[in-house]
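Practice problem. Given the sequence and the SMILES for flavin-adenine dinucleotide, write out the predicted structure.
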Amino acid sequence: MEESASRSDKKKVVAVVGGGLVGALNACYFAKRGFDVQVFETREDIRKAKIVKGRSINLALSHRGRSALKHVGMEDKIVSKGIPMHARMIHSLSGKQSPIPYGKKGQLLLQRLNPTEAETYPNTTLNFGRKLSDGSEEEIQADLIVGCDGAFSAIRKQFLRRSRFNFSQTYIPHGYMELTMPPINGEFAMKPNYLHIWPRNTFMMIALPNLDKTFTCTLFMPFEEFEKITTGDEVIEFFQKYFPDTIPLIGVDALKRDYFRLPGQAMVSVKCTPYHIGDKCVLMGDAAHAVVPFYGQGMNAGFEDCIVFEEIMEQFNEDFSAVLPEYTRVRVPDDHAIADLAMYNYIEMRAHVNSRWFLFRKHVDNFLHAIMPKTIIPLYTMVTFSRIRYHEAVKRWHWQDKVRCFKKICHLLFIFHSLAARRNVSDFSNLAADEPVSPWPHAELSDVTCAAGFSTNGP
Ligand SMILES: Cc1cc2nc3c(=O)[nH]c(=O)nc-3n(C[C@H](O)[C@H](O)[C@H](O)COP(=O)(O)OP(=O)(O)OC[C@H]3O[C@@H](n4cnc5c(N)ncnc54)[C@H](O)[C@@H]3O)c2cc1C
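Answer key:
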């Protein structure tokens, strides 16, 4: 009798595998609920590491991510260390810079969130340098295992052995490479509160500011293009042709050296279902749904996983046997929707968008949203600045697109806009070479579809 009472009083143990962005936040969520939390992370403790290995991606944190941080009281702390982004800044071939504001408040750049954040809770133990893998002898004793171990999840591999587990992964032909733009005289080399974009059709570069006044420039390009460049001089030739304004800012020597530091990195989209096994194991973050980065939502979706799980825990009184299936039921359609949106942006933005239409649609969307804020909400606004469920945002976007009156207004406005522009611009032929094109990523998908719809259906 005594033994069973003490057993039920014992705190349940939750093992979080992977102390990346989502694992770190999840550990806080479970610790806040009073579980005994064990985090297992392959990498060493960055507080003790002399050299911090890995890539330095800085990430756009938007509404969903912020809401999840807020729930465990971390929003202010993280936001105070971030850099606000008010708009995109498009760089043309001639070096001309054109800002395109976000529909709403703007986003925030998040620097690293690491598992040590979870240590503020005394009921959390961090186990660094602990890689849990298929062949390992190690057994985790826990009431619940939460797989937050990224796109190549070892925990997910266990799911693959089971019947009725659906899984797909797609590598895209593009890779990415990071280059650093140093400060000039101790100041940012470009305006800091922008997502800088150099859109060049099949490839493009973006740059995001860091707290140390550097910019991280990320070059997205098909692998075959990366491979064509084999010498330092070819790097400079390439940059001279496509990103000439960045050469003095990054530096010739740095470009020649850093281009060859690491090969282009692959990007993968992963979908699976279900996310759980019985009442024992659940996948979250990239382990459940790695998405290509062209909507800036991978981490935001992973953070939202934590808050959705939390909401279901509340609803089902922490009964894992009810919580886990419900989590799969609720979350899979949304994660699949954002994976599709990100992939669609990757494919379609390059194929159909041109700058004139993009800018025009941006104005129209904002105008219509301003006069009918509850009826017309741009897809990008729903995805980035709200917690409307991803799959509902997609449904709503299709509906908005179908509203004939909306289309008609667009077409009419576009005709007026084109006529007005024709009067003002004497030589259209130069525009293709010099104006911004395809401002992906983080651009509105709705722009794409309408652009395609306009040309095929006609006004
Ligand atoms: C170029 C690029 C740009 C991006 N930009 C954005 C953006 O602007 N906004 C956004 O929201 N998202 C963005 N993303 C996506 C975002 O980076 C990911 O969605 C996010 O990092 C996922 O977090 P995670 O914790 O699930 O996985 P990860 O960050 O991959 O963390 C997984 C952790 O698990 C550990 N681990 C792995 N295997 C094991 C194991 N067997 N045992 C123990 N530990 C293990 C790893 O060491 C790692 O720490 C971008 C991605 C890329 C590639």
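Check your answer against the key. Confidence is low (pLDDT under 50) at residues 1-8, 424-459.
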